[in-house]
Amino acid sequence: MAGFRSKFDTLRWRADRLEMIDQRVLPGEIRYLAYDSASEVADGISDMVVRGAPAIGCAAAYGIALEALRLRQQSPAGFNDGLNTAFRVLAASRPTAVNLFWALSRMRDAWEAAADSIPAQTATRLLAAAHAIFTDDVAANRRMGQYGAELVKDGASILTHCNAGALATAGHGTALGVIRSAIEAGKKISVYADETRPFLQGARLTAWELMQDDIPVTLIADNAAGHLMSRGEIDIVIVGADRIAANGDVANKIGTYQVAVLAHRHRIPFYVAAPLSTIDAQIATGADIPIEERAADEVRGYRDMHWAPELVAIRNPVFDVTPAELVTGLITERGVVAAPDSNKIGALLRGA
């Protein structure tokens, strides 16, 4: 296969508006929602129209650009006040995915670099910065895919958890990008996708996305992974990440930790594919990563169907932390970091 070309866009810029595929209704319906302001984009992030750390970062960048375009006829003071509000609103949309804050920081740098420009010129520069973040994400995913593909043996059976594909990024994907790149390299592989309770990203999104590219995929319940590992049916685990601490601890979708523990028990390599923007050098360990908890209804049922008692107490943490000692390696756009720790990650970020 010469190369994958996605049959869908996770995010796209059309007629001075951001359009995002509505991931809440996949795979039953394919629809795009249009956004004109930072507050609308923040709502789209909070409501899970878009999810996946790199995609959230790209969406936030475009949210700032949209607000700048909306305010470009304002006075400099009004423009600046409006943009500051936009940064605050977008920063509050999701707490765990660090790419959100990384993208907003990059957009603020672009804003400060245009401090002497009139609002209309600044808006143009901010849109260019958002486009660059989008393009850079695809390029980083491609490089990750090339490095990660070398770790995948021909004929391998891969387990992945949640969705770390094109739907979670600007394109190609992180964990699924490795899978796509391995196939591009001529390797015959197959994928097991955990359903990923409670929001079913694996069942609804990963399975659908891989089927779009004719990649062999088998959907399993989350609690079936250990059984398949014990029978030798899984050769390697590759997942994405929402935030990586300075010591290599990894926050990812809830359930990732138990997959890592099972992989360790069965001596199966456990890899995390994530761009450098997912590494938060300001967070020493995973214990310091904020873990988002979402609405109880996501656990009680799905959409209009409820299967749990209405009054039962529910906890819904949507991320967990996998300790670095359970991570075989981090796959990044600068290469693979085996057995990550503080020293190795520091050197990676310095480009050493």
Structure description:
This protein is α/β, with parallel strands linked by helices and 352 residues long. It has two domains: 11-141, Up-down Bundle (Four Helix Bundle (Hemerythrin (Met), subunit A)), CATH 1.20.120; 143-350, Rossmann fold (3-Layer(aba) Sandwich), CATH 3.40.50. The protein is built from eleven helices and 16 strands. The protein has helices spanning 38-46, 53-70, 76-91, 98-113, 119-149, 175-184, 201-212, 225-230, 256-265, 297-300, 342-350; strands spanning 11-14, 17-21, 32-35, 157-160, 190-194, 217-220, 236-239, 243-245, 250-253, 270-273, 279-280, 301-302, 305-306, 319-322, 329-332, 335-338. The strands form four sheets. A seven-stranded mixed β-sheet has the order 6-5-4-7-10-15-16, sandwiched between helices. A hairpin with a 4-residue loop joins strand 8 (243-245) and strand 9. Helix 2 runs parallel beside helix 4 and helix 5 packs across helix 6. The longest helix has 31 residues, at 119-149. The protein is globular, with a radius of gyration of 20 Å. It starts with 10 loop residues before the first strand and ends with a helix.
